[in-house]
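Posting for a labmate who doesn't have an account.
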Amino acid sequence: MDSRRNTYQRDLIRMVMKDNFNHPTADEIYDEVKKIDHRISRGTVYRNLSILAEDGEISHYNAPFGPDHYDSILEPHYHCLCRKCGKLVDAKIPYDNKLNSIANVCDGFKLESHDLVFVGICKDCVDLNN
């Protein structure tokens, strides 16, 4: 982390993200922060989410479709993404560090990590269609 000035707004976002394991979107985080301080702007929340992710305090997940998500879990892990509603949840399988050493897919790269997302339809969306 660099020597950025800590701000009240960033502290509010940290508080909302603390122990939040629901992979909220920026808009969902904004809605929660807005309940605490109605004066905060959407731009301030987005800007501070970027700073927190850049500084490694939260994880930012770029969804291939739908809005991006944020994660309080910093350890490497896999996700399941619903292609209908965009819900992102933790996959209940262990992270496999060995994949980095055996996945020689990029010539000249020394792989350091990987991100794996299983895409499908969540239980809630399946139940809606039955």
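Reply:
Got it, the structure tokens are right above this. The chain is about 35% helix and 15% strand.
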